[in-house]
Amino acid sequence: MPPDDDNTLAGRVKRYAKVSAAVGGLAARVVGQRYLGIRLDRGEHAAELKAALGGLKGPLMKVAQLMATIPDALPEEYVTELIQLQSNAPSMGWPFVRRRMASELGQDWQKRFRSFEHQAAHAASLGQVHRARELDMDGHGGRPLACKLQYPDMGSAVEADLAQLKIVFAIYERYDRAIATEQIHAEIAARLREELDYDREARHMRLYEFMLKDEKGVHVPEVLTELSTRRLLTMTWLEGEKLLEFIRAHDDIAMRNTVAYNMFRAWYVPFYYYGIIHGDPHLGNYAVRPDGSVNLLDFGCIRMFGPPFVRGVIDLYRALERKDQSLAVHAYETWGFKGLTQEVIDVLNLWAEFVYAPLLEDRARRIQEKSSGVYGRAVAEKVHAELRRLGGVKPPREFVFMDRAAIGLGSVFMHLKAEINWHRLFHELIRDFDEAKLARRQARALAKVGLTRPE
Length: 455
Known about the structure:
The protein is α+β, with helices and mostly antiparallel strands. The protein has helices at residues 9-36, 42-53, 59-68, 76-82, 94-105, 154-175, 182-195, 198-211, 243-249, 253-274, 307-322, 325-335, 342-360, 377-389, 397-416, 422-430, 435-449, and strands at 113-116, 122-123, 127-135, 141-150, 218-219, 232-236, 276-278, 286-288, 294-296, 302-304.
């Protein structure tokens, strides 16, 4: 079978039929455990689930990346197995690339570049990236470019993968009702569907270029609109090292702190000034330059918030700082949590105190001072157990990617072993917070790039 056929709709239908049967069998075993008392080894079950899903590649890899850093969305055993699914799948061959480029830019597309590499530089979950070189006005080679091509039939693939994810969530909730997953699924679905629209991603890129224009330590690629479509995104190529490679090469704490500072600003200047956050802080979405500045490389998963949600983040900080229980309740309700009992609030505060801890101490410190291989795992497990005992909680949609960004960035800062006064960085951002001003800044920024905030 030609390589391209692996991603055709017909090919996917066959594979999904096999996966549905396998997942259905696993679901039956969960029912057996719940109602017939049959013992279920969660680690073994998770490994079998990975094996059942492993042939899908494509969008499910994106889902696995998301699930790995959304606390309590799935048990640890399942996350451990899912993140082993390879997101860096073999790239599509030149016949696909040639056809896709011709369909997006016309049959003479190669004349619009000085050069275009046949072999993909990177193959990811929804598409692959090729190096190219710009054709300048004199016909000579201009800037190095990155051309991101979307795989075939991704719309169908995303919907099928989301359907499978719903089954996974249903299996989970059959025996563990600590976290209601309906809104988590809805939020992941919305973001994944947005990621298929490269025109929207190009607007996100220009939005970040605008929001971070005064940040010397953060770099955003420039979009080449005339060489981009809904399924092709052409941008300038930014050179940099992967974070883990950078860490291995640099023992200097000052340099590590510089990288951490720039990462903090890259994520939280847009959030506290514009109500917008990059929802995907995994290690492949940025690179580090020799001076410690960072390149942001992927803008498919961007979350926009109403100003009250941002105020709720600050209100919860103030509540923990002042031990003001009523303000904490107000913050949770602002985010969209409903029907909270006192016991549930106490449990949510355990998680909040952990996440906010570095911001509450006015001193230089590591993001997590107790040595741990997984950021927050012990706290998350305690919170999860208490929520299960209390009957569970339903996280609101807006909360999902805000929480993910905080935990994902915390993991980055742990890798860096950065020692920074997080308290002062945070206070610098919120010092003059004004909800009405944020609303005006957000509206201007979105209008500048032709976007609106989803309600």
